[in-house]
Write a structure and sequence with these properties.
Strand order of the largest sheet: 1-2-3-4-5-6
Number of helices: 14
Structural class: alpha+beta
Helix content: 55-70%
Distance between the termini: 62 Å
Radius of gyration: 43 Å
Length: about 550
């Protein structure tokens, strides 16, 4: 490795480590403030806080690495340009691309490390962090007896102190109700004053009572006999309470392992495939399930059709003209030995039952109806079949035929809602799987933006570079947030939801690299002042 490579790497690693830890600290502070109320008054101890902060610091690294690379690369090349070291390197015939090469190799290796961390280290840290956070939330606050209010934090006891002194240990005018036996207020202790402290590693709370009385109502030895009532007067007494319920118990971590934050990329993709197969099975079940509720119109009624009706329907299917309803003409049906009124009534019934309208009376003559009873039998069969739908036995009583489609509607709504939830969940898991690699590649993109931009700006330190870095980070954050929101809703694919920011910001990096190679004065005010002066001069000449 040449000296120039060592110089560039040494100039970069220092600002990178500093900015990385600063960014992690800022993100960690902002994140931990959300759970501040869960930590207050629980006496967690230094070890618990250290463990929780360490795990959540690892959780912040996927966001901290790209921002640290952007800021440190901008500061490094800004310092080199500000002290004319970059100019001296270029004057020696070394191009900017050659200067960037050692840092580019370093950032590529860093991206591989970030991907490994996102895929294996961060999920394990999340499992430890969120399981510990859950246990902290479940832990009871430390004993805090308020003056003039009942305190029920100790299981089986209710304590009230009308006076509490400034040392937080001395109490006055004390009342203790013992409900440990779950028999009501059968044991009461009154004391003029008390002193409380813990023993055996804060496992037990001791209350030394002074000048008090105790009242106990004992169970009756025989049924239907009054209970015994005992009163004791004391000058000094001790009551010991177990504080086992105040200890923090660790929950089994396997209960949290199914969350997406605790899984690597391969596990997330397997879950996405399972969810999509589940969605396909749900959609298939809808098609198999629906015909059970919409089969009334599919019932076959051909077995109850008389031959005369079949001939009528066949004739009606072959007729192409529609002249309206046929005129009543009872004399035309007299040759068929059918009474006029009976034929008219049965013809109207047939039209009502099957929706058939004869084209002309002459068409009606062609139908050889042998007996009016055939039509009546067909009509009565249709009515009986319809009545059977209303008289179906269900729920012990009659079932209205409207209940069937209503139940089907509710069932289909539930299935569709379940499919929508599974699709949303699969999108969330798919986005999480794609973000493992996209966050690592973001380090390379941020380097391609920061390093050329620092060479153009030629200003180091924590002033202007910080402003530019925050600007690009905000743009990246907004694009990522918008993409994830659209991806979860299914408006765009999971790939573009997390990769959009990289593809949008990469052209900016290539543009800045081109400008830096050409020694562009992109951010110098006098450069734009000269350009504006030339424009004004051009318009003056034209006049």
């Amino acid at each position: 490795m040449k000296k120039i490579d060592k110089l560039i790497l040494k100039s970069f690693i220092g600002p990178f480590l500093i900015t990385f830890f600063v960014v992690v600290f800022i993100l960690l502070t902002q994140y931990m403030l959300k759970y501040f109320d869960d930590f207050v008054g629980k006496d967690l101890g230094f070890e618990v806080f250290t463990e929780l902060i360490a795990y959540f610091s690892i959780n912040m690294t996927p966001i901290a690495f790209p921002l640290a690379v952007l800021l440190s690369s901008l500061m490094t090349f800004g310092n080199l340009g500000e002290h004319f070291e970059l100019t001296a390197i270029k004057s020696a015939g070394i191009s900017l691309v050659r200067v960037l090469r050692p840092l580019f190799v370093f950032v590529v290796c860093l991206s591989a490390l970030v991907y490994y961390s996102n895929n294996f280290i961060v999920p394990k840290a999340n499992l430890e962090a969120y399981s510990l956070l859950y246990d902290i939330k479940q832990k009871k606050p430390s004993i805090d007896i308020k003056e003039g209010a009942f305190y029920g934090g100790i299981p089986g006891y209710s304590i009230k102190a009308n006076k509490k002194y400034d040392d937080d240990k001395s109490l006055g005018d004390l009342i203790i109700y013992n409900h440990s036996k779950k028999k009501g207020n059968t044991e009461i202790i009154l004391a003029d004053s008390a002193l409380m402290y813990t023993i055996l590693g804060d496992k037990y709370l001791v209350m030394e009572l002074f000048d008090g009385k105790s009242y106990t109502e004992e169970d009756a030895t025989k049924p239907n006999k009054p209970s015994n009532y005992v009163r004791n007067v004391f000058q000094h007494n001790k009551v010991v309470f177990s504080l086992a319920s105040f200890e923090m118990e660790r929950t089994d971590k396997d209960l949290f392992s199914s969350n997406r934050l605790m899984k690597n990329e391969q596990e997330l993709r397997n879950d996405v495939d399972s969810m999509r197969n589940d969605i396909i099975d749900s959609k298939r079940s809808i098609y198999r399930y629906t015909p059970r509720f919409f089969n009334i119109h599919l019932d076959d009624v051909d077995e109850i059709k008389p031959q005369s009706v079949e001939l009528w329907e066949k004739m009606r299917a072959d007729t192409t003209k529609t002249d309206g309803l046929a005129e009543e003409n009872s004399s035309d049906l007299s040759n068929e030995n059918i009474e006029t009124n009976a034929a008219k009534v049965n013809k109207e019934k047939l039209v009502t039952a099957k929706g058939l309208v004869p084209e002309r009376v002459e068409d009606a003559k062609k139908v050889k109806i042998k007996n009016v009873k055939d039509i009546k039998a067909y009509d009565s069969a249709i009515v009986n079949k319809a009545d059977s739908f209303f008289n179906t036995i269900n729920r012990g009583n009659l079932l209205n035929v409207v209940d069937k489609p209503r139940f089907a509607k509710n069932r289909l709504k539930g299935e569709n809602r379940r499919i929508e939830n599974r699709e949303f969940e699969s999108n969330v898991y798919g986005i999480e799987a794609n973000s493992k690699l996209s966050q690592a590649v973001a380090c390379i993109v941020m380097f391609l933006i920061g390093a050329p931009l620092g060479a153009i700006i030629k200003k180091g330190g924590l002033g202007f570079p910080v402003i530019v870095s925050i600007l690009f980070f905000i743009v990246s954050y907004v694009i990522n947030t918008t993409g994830i929101k659209l991806g979860r809703a299914g408006d765009i694919s999971n790939f573009w939801a997390v990769w959009a920011s990289n593809f949008i910001l990469l052209p900016f990096g290539l543009f800045f690299l081109r400008q830096a190679r050409n020694d562009s004065r992109l951010f110098e005010t006098d450069y734009y002042a000269v350009k504006i002066a030339k424009v004004f001069k051009f318009f003056k000449k034209e006049k």
